[in-house]
Every structure is written in C-alpha cells, then in structure tokens.
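Predicting structure from sequence has reshaped protein science. With that in mind, we have picked out one protein's residues alongside their backbone shape tokens:
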Amino acid sequence: MPVAFVGHGAPSLALDAEKGAELSAWAMQLPRRPRAVLVVSAHWEDAPVTLSSTRNGTPLVYDFYGFPEALYQVRHDAPAAPELASEVTKRLAAWEPRTSDRGLDHGAWTVLTHLDRGAELPTLQLSMPHSASLPQLLALGRALSPLRDEDVWILGSGNITHNLRRLDRHGAGAPVAWAAEFDAWTAQALSSGDLDALVDPKRAPGWALAHPTPDHYRPLLVAAGAAGDDVTKVRFPIVGFEFGSLSRRSVEFG
C-alpha cells in the first residue's frame, strides 16, 4: 500500500463537498482496497505510544469549538481494528505501547469521512509521543512500514503550514510569502528524499511562522518513515492554500 500524509485543514473539511471530492478521488486511485487504516494525527500527542479504542461504537472526539452545529452531528462509524492493534503493538514493542478508550479525533475522522465514505475500513489511531524528536518519529514510522505489505493504509494527518494566529478567514488568492516558502521547501525536500532536511526544518525559510508549535508537521515524519524505500516515490495529490497561509499539500509515498 502507499503511505499518505493529508493536509486536513479546518474541521469543516468534513462538510466541504468540493474539498472532500478531491480526497475521495484520491482514495479511488489506490492500487487496491486497504485491509485497514492506521492514522497518526496532529491532534493526539501522548506518551507512551497509545492506541485508540478497539471497541466498535466508540464515539468520535469533537476536539474543537465554535463551528456550525452540523459538524458536531457528523458520524464516522468505521469498524474497530483489534487485529491491527495487536500487529502494531508487536511492531512497536520497543515503544511499550498501551491502549485507551479514546475515539478518533478530528484530524482523523474529518479526512476519513471522504477517504472512506462508507465507513467500511477497520480503523485504528496511534498517538505520537510528545517527547519524541523528529528523528525518533521517523524511526517510529519505519517500524510501522512492514504493515504496508499487509494492505494497511498508513495515514499521517496534519498540515505543512499551520499558524492559526496568522489565518486570514476571508483571504483568497496567493498565499503569504512565509507560507509559500516553507511549503515549497518541504515539497522540494520530499521530492528529493532529503530526510536530513525534513528532520531539521528549523533552518528552512518560513519555519518559525509556519509552525509556532510543531504538532502539525510531526505526522509528516511518521509517514515518511513508514514509506521506507519508497520515500523518494512522491506525488502531491492535493496542493494549494486556504485562509491565506494554511497549506493543503497532501503527499503520497509509493
């Protein structure tokens, strides 16, 4: 299976038919149907490594406020993935993973409502340890890479630029310079398979403004690690910006 990183943007993505159609089209282009989905979201940093609920019917996490009521009514009742949880636990034995009763957060379900419209794919979410460095997150992804051969679709969900204080809610047209520069730098590093650059982004143009906190960048490192030898086989199914500075760039490895 390929590995993906999805620029999830605002939670309202779940209700956005136009942006959702791009995600659905991407899923339709997969070489085969995934057996299960493993998601790493910017919105769950917990140590030690933790797995989401493996119980069917676990409620979603609506970890946002101030949005239309319709968004709080969105459901994504995908089957739980206890078998995948067992496999992940074995692969990550060195990380001493634990389980929880937590449901999928909006970094996961807002994209999956379009990538898996029928909520048919068994789905598991994995936390990122907040204490892990970027090289360690790359190593975490590498440990998960063999799951690709078992038809598991590994998804990172974040944003290549993410500064909520700099959003222009009414913005249209070209993005601001610092966002465009960091987005372009990341695309170049990905296209050339430059992992050394990706794990040391503080020297990149625009980094300080693109990521006041690195949480939305970190899932990209897990996805790049999970790509394994396919890290140089990169395409960008979705590009562009919203709100003047929030990159929508999404990545497929493999």
User: Anything to note?
Assistant: The CA atoms of residues 7 and 248 lie 5 Å apart.
